[in-house]
Amino acid sequence: MPDPDREPNNRSRKVDVDNSTSTSSGWILRGGRVVDRSGDRVADVAIAADGTVAAVGLDLDAAGLGLADAPVLDVTGCIVAPGLVDIHTHLREPGREEAETIESGSRAAALGGFTAIVAMPNTEPTIDSAAVVRQVQSAGMAAGLCDVRVSGAITVGREGKALSPMAEMADLGVRMFTDDGCGVQDDRLMRRALEYSSGLSVPVTLAQHCEVEALSEGGHMHEGEWSSRLGIPGIPAEAEELMVFRDIALARLTGARVHFQHLSTAGAVELVRQAKARGLPVTSEATPHHFTLTHAEVASYDPVFKVNPPLRTADDVAAVKAGLADGTIDAIATDHAPHTAEVKEAPFDHAPCGMLGLETALALGVTELVEPGILTMTQLLAAMSWQPAEIAGIADIHGLPIETGSPAHLVVFDPTEEWTVDPSELASLSANTPYAGRTLRGKVRHTMLCGVPTVLDGKAQR
């Protein structure tokens, strides 16, 4: 990847990778089912030595393409798709490298089929200045197994008091801004942020963690039947819905783009649905845990199930699935949030919020959405590849159709392979997955960034 100081325009940014795991002769993927925004077909994919797609079609003539010496990967029975894009990843670096580093997090991402991730800014120090943006970008270029993009904070220190220097960060390629972990509470400040963002020289998106703290303060799980049974203070659905309502109104007022992070309630999904019907510039995401788990999991008092926003009701889970099915929810984002065992295994009311997500997201989508017929495979991949790439402002590089000349950012996965989640086998430095022992279908075989395998036969290449 280029030096960020020399490439201020994210729209023309290229992706360079260490070619030590590849050969100079390209690759041939034989017999896979190619799924992208242009269609669903069985075809071979030839990858040129320069990291672009050389050809797509049946029974490709490798010699005729100048790829006679290219290694051949038999991907019969597998799906070949544009690499996945996660727009909500916590890499913890800088500041909490004992839980995750850019290297370990990007390795987990590659193993999960991701070729690009957007790092959240709630690090120590906060990513709220050009200097910290450069630091994370440099670490991503040096150690990342995928394209590590950086989001910036909306406010200085994520304290909700003063706007961050968004223009300086945008000049370095930052295209998403969020105070993720806490929402911007001040209505006037959020209006100013939206007006400021819409006047920048490049398009950016403000992403909101939707939580009215006056309603959520002191809560540790969803407020409802189970919080009452367990005696755990709850967070009402209205804490999320009121902020979604406010920011829809501000999007209407300012004309600026707003992205709603990790929607978890039926009411929030319906508000976004109505806003989209009115043509407002809003997008949204949901996490795998919010379409697979409910607040009943907390009955065990296991803090692995503590997350923010909290796990909600079965009706909310059904609403999130419906929102993904009808396009109200644009993206599936992992909200990958690693924590060391030392801090995560504290009593429930003292434990931090967050779950791992990068290595299980695709399989959960296949198992919980595609197999029951809620989404088609194309819809799932749209929500995990090209649609999040659009939101992140990197759709000129990632999520592109697999066609001649496109960058070979690809994932190859077997949608039928079953595997059991074992926290000890995950690449993350942390082990706080709520899916331990769960059998899923859908396993990544290969991940390629610029035609270079970052994962080959299910193994990370460095």
TrEMBL record:
Q: Which Gene3D superfamilies match?
A: Metal-dependent hydrolases, Urease, subunit C, domain 1
Q: What keywords are annotated for this sequence in UniProt? A: Hydrolase, Metal-binding, Pyrimidine biosynthesis
Region spans: Disordered: 1-24
Q: Which Pfam families does the protein's record reference?
A: DHOase
Compositionally skewed regions (Basic and acidic residues) per UniProt: 1-17
Q: Name one GO biological process term.
A: purine nucleobase catabolic process
List the GO cellular component terms.
cytoplasm
Q: Where is the signal peptide?
A: none
Q: Which GO terms describe its molecular function?
A: allantoinase activity; dihydroorotase activity; metal ion binding
InterPro entries membership: DHOase, DHOase/Allantoinase_Hydrolase, DHOase_cat, Dihydroorotase_CS, Metal-dep_hydrolase_composite, Metal_Hydrolase
Q: Which cofactor does it need?
A: Zn(2+)
* Record-annotated Dihydroorotase catalytic domain positions: 79-265
Xref: PANTHER family: ALLANTOINASE
Full protein name: Unannotated protein
